Amino acid sequence: MKLLEYGFLQNRWLWFHMLAAGVIAKLLLAFKVAPNHVFGVVLALAALWELVEWSKEYTEGFPSYGNDSSRFFLDAVGDVVGALFITFIVVL
């Protein structure tokens, strides 16, 4: 239940991750990248972004998440799932 709450309902930046994934997927398809590779690229970029975000938050003690690292990870899962969901829609 917490995944639903922190990963999607209270995730203020989820829309941005979905928008970025949709634009990236559309651009990759325009450059004739195979659809299965589009998923791989979007997944890799989303994971890389979350690692960069984690390194920033980790050094500061996760202040954006109420000093709760588990909330960060639930938020990150929501971001990656949202990005892949939009990529699925764009590829269809």
What does this 3D model show about the protein?
The chain is 80% helix and 0% strand. The chain is an all-alpha fold. The chain has one domain. Helix 1 packs across helix 4 (69-91) and helix 3 runs antiparallel to helix 4 (69-91). The chain is elongated and about 45 Å long.
Enumerate how many helices there are, as a single number. 4
Cα-to-Cα separation, first versus last residue? 29 Å
Please give the domain count: 1
Shape label: elongated
- Rg, nearest Å: 14 Å
Structural class: mainly alpha
Strand content: under 5%
Mean pLDDT: 96
Regions with little confidence, pLDDT below 50 for 5+ residues: none
Largest sheet: none
Fraction of helical residues: over 70%
N-to-C SSE series? HHHH
Number of DSSP E strands: 0
Write the layout of secondary structure elements.
Layout: H1 2-9, H2 14-30, H3 35-60, H4 69-91
Helix pairs in contact: 1-4, 2-3, 2-4, 3-4
Structure described in brief:
The chain is mainly alpha-helical. Helix content is 80%, strand content 0%.
Key terms:
single chain, 92 residues, mainly alpha, 4 helices, 80% helix, 0% strand, elongated
